[in-house]
């Protein structure tokens, strides 16, 4: 792993704090105690993620949170307030879930790797946020659940990301019981990559981010796109698609440089081309 990256003081941008250093962008949910995915929170995250798509100075994105809760999911008070409207809130509910779906797909389709740094509870759409990230590293104090069934609202949209990370039986266990699982169980299920002591969480996440940031951004982008694309295909189509990707990758300057550096036993100099 590379050296720990120093994080510069964050700058407030609505409910999200933004900091950047050495190619690593950190987006911190900063609306405790719940860090709920209100429309304002989702809009702030969406704006930053969209802005970073073409920003060559950013190579990796970290999603973290302030307070004891990583993210408690949708803002139920905000949603309930719209039940007094003539349509009983239907239009607002549609807007909220559409914004959430777009945000989660933006993370998956984003050209930059996104790492979730989880310290605290990630529940419902908060768990969906974690599951949508490319990597998830959690403290021992982290916990996860899809508790919608307990309040009469099945976690149907969080289920999409959850079921793409864990087995069907494990996903249904969480969805049907609504019970909270600890970090160890989440790792066993495949929801998170690694568990570390709280005092080392930021350091470990930064090490992962810096290691990834040291690679060719073109190769990382190519690989991430191919990974999610082939996952939705049948076996033959997946091999055909990734074969084409490998050919194009081999023609890239960074592949030529990387292979040459490996053969020549030297450190590669990436051009991201």
Helices and strands, with pairings:
Blueprint: E1 11-13, E2 16-21, E3 24-29, H1 39-52, E4 60-65, E5 69-71, H2 76-80, H3 90-109, E6 114-118, E7 121-123, H4 125-132, E8 135-139, E9 143-145, H5 156-163, H6 168-177, E10 181-182, H7 183-189, E11 194-196, H8 201-213, H9 217-231, H10 235-250, H11 253-263
Parallel strand pairs: 3-4, 4-6, 5-7, 6-8, 7-9, 8-11
Antiparallel strand pairs: 1-2, 2-3, 9-10
Helix pairs in contact: 1-3, 3-4, 4-5, 9-10
What does this structure look like?
By secondary structure, this protein is an alpha/beta fold. It has 11 helices and 11 strands. The protein has helices spanning 39-52, 76-80, 90-109, 125-132, 156-163, 168-177, 183-189, 201-213, 217-231, 235-250, 253-263, and strands at residues 11-13, 16-21, 24-29, 60-65, 69-71, 114-118, 121-123, 135-139, 143-145, 181-182, 194-196. The strands form 2 sheets. Strands 1-2-3-4-6-8-11 form a 7-stranded mixed beta sheet, sandwiched between helices. Strand 3 (24-29), helix 1 (39-52) and strand 4 form a beta-alpha-beta unit. The radius of gyration is 20 Å and the shape is globular. The two termini are 24 Å apart. Mean pLDDT is 94; it is low at 1-9.
């Amino acid at each position: 792993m590379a050296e720990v990256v120093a994080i510069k003081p964050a700058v407030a941008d609505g409910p999200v704090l933004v900091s950047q250093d050495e190619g690593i962008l950190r987006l911190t949910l900063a609306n405790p105690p719940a860090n709920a995915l209100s429309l304002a929170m989702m809009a702030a995250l969406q704006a930053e993620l969209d802005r970073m798509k073409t920003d060559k100075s950013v190579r990796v994105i970290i999603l973290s949170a302030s307070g004891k809760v990583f993210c408690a999911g949708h803002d139920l008070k905000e949603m309930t307030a719209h039940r007094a409207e003539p349509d009983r809130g239907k239009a607002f509910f549609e807007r909220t879930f559409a914004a959430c779906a777009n945000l989660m797909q933006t993370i998956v389709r984003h050209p930059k790797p996104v790492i979730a740094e989880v310290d605290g509870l990630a529940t419902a759409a908060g768990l969906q946020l974690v599951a949508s990230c490319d990597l998830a590293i959690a403290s021992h104090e982290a916990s996860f659940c899809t508790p919608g069934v307990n309040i009469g609202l099945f976690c149907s949209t969080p289920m999409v990301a959850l079921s793409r990370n864990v087995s069907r039986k494990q996903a249904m266990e969480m969805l049907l019981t609504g019970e909270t699982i600890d970090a160890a169980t989440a790792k066993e299920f495949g929801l998170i990559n690694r568990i570390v002591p709280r005092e080392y969480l930021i350091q470990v996440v930064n090490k992962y981010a810096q290691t990834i940031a040291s690679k060719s951004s073109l190769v990382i982008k190519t690989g991430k796109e191919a990974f999610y694309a082939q996952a939705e295909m049948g076996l033959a189509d997946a091999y055909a698609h990734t074969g084409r990707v490998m050919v194009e990758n081999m023609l890239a300057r960074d592949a030529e440089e990387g292979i040459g550096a490996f053969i020549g036993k030297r450190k590669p100099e990436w051009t991201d081309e």
